[in-house]
Design goal:
- By secondary structure, this protein is of the alpha+beta class.
- 46% of the residues lie in helices and 14% in strands.
- The longest helix has 14 residues.
Length: 200
């Protein structure tokens, strides 16, 4: 029930205005020519994740309909946040770029988790993963890479698409500010209204 509610809350947030493509989020009918929604892309990617082993299988995600670019971007984010991948080649230079300042940190502060309190869905990323998100946002990383980081860090899977989309809407400067004290960030979403982040 909790995971379903979190997914619904994030979907509502996305449809309320976090549009990442030229296609309207509230279109009545999706034609074959319309690009897949952020949630569809995320679902196809997380089909390749074995949460128990923290392994992403690129072939399984591709078989589920994920594009080659999304598979690669997700894999880079997944590895940057500590996961492992199979059936997809990941360039170490891309992983290093996403890791940003996190690679220089001796220890990570904060926690990686997700929960629902009352009507609010919450995702928490420790200081290392917050730095990876900031590096990704500043470097122009797309939704798939951010979903990879969030999924590897928290294991929330499909709900990560809504969080990644919201992070893109907030921008790297705001997320960096929230994580500037080095304790990680908390990201919060209500069924109505804009998402927000703050320090843990």
């Amino acid at each position: 029930m909790t995971k379903n509610w979190m997914r619904t809350a994030l979907a509502v947030t996305l449809s309320a205005g976090l549009v990442l493509s030229a296609t309207p989020a509230l279109a009545d009918v999706q034609s074959k020519d319309d690009p897949p929604s952020v949630q569809d892309r995320t679902d196809r990617l997380v089909a390749g994740v074995d949460e128990a082993k923290k392994v992403f299988d690129g072939r399984t995600a591709a078989d589920a309909g994920a594009s080659a670019r999304d598979v690669n971007d997700f894999a880079v984010g997944f590895v940057a946040a500590g996961g492992t991948v199979t059936n997809v080649a990941v360039a170490q230079s891309e992983v290093d770029r996403l890791r940003g300042n996190a690679a220089a940190m001796r220890a990570c502060s904060g926690r990686n988790s997700a929960d629902v309190t009352g009507l609010q869905a919450n995702v928490y990323l420790d200081s290392c993963n917050a730095s990876r998100i900031v590096a990704g946002l500043a470097g122009g990383a797309g939704v798939a890479a951010l979903v990879g980081i969030i999924t590897a860090a928290t294991g929330i899977g499909g709900a990560a698409g809504g969080i990644a989309a919201a992070l893109l809407s907030i921008g790297s400067a705001a997320v960096a500010y929230c994580g500037s004290n080095g304790r990680g960030i908390g990201f919060h979403v209500l069924p109505v209204g804009p998402p927000w982040s703050r320090s843990q």
